[in-house]
Amino acid sequence: MDILTGFAREERRVLLIDNTLQGSITVSLGFTATDSIRYTSFSVMEKIIHEEEFNSVEGILHHQESMDLMPENYYLTKTE
Questions:
Q1: pLDDT tens profile 2-32
Q2: CA–CA distance from 76 to each of 12, 16, 45 (Å)?
Q3: Domain residues for 55?
Q4: From CA 32, how far away is CA 38, in angstroms rounded?
Q5: Full-model pTM
Q6: Total domains present in the chain
Q7: What would the pLDDT profile of 33-70 be if each residue is shown by its tens digit?
Q8: What is the DSSP string of 34-78?
């Protein structure tokens, strides 16, 4: 994460996409209530698969280190 934090400090845009079943990256960035996160990478992928419209910033959380995160939680298991 240090290199990503460095990019953010240089005012480069950083987007992390969590695609882990446990939401490991999401939790490590301090978003511990993953079950209550409404929009995740899974929900965006699901809308793409079903050709549904969605807002391009839907599911993106802003972290205090100037990084953006598309979170995940256990709902990703539904894609298997």
A1: 777 777 778 778 888 888 878 888 888 888 8
A2: 29, 16, 10
A3: 2-79
A4: 13
A5: 0.71
A6: 1
A7: 877 788 888 888 888 889 999 887 778 888 877 788 88
A8: GGG-S--HHHHHHHHHTT----TTTT-EE-TTS-EEE---GGGGG
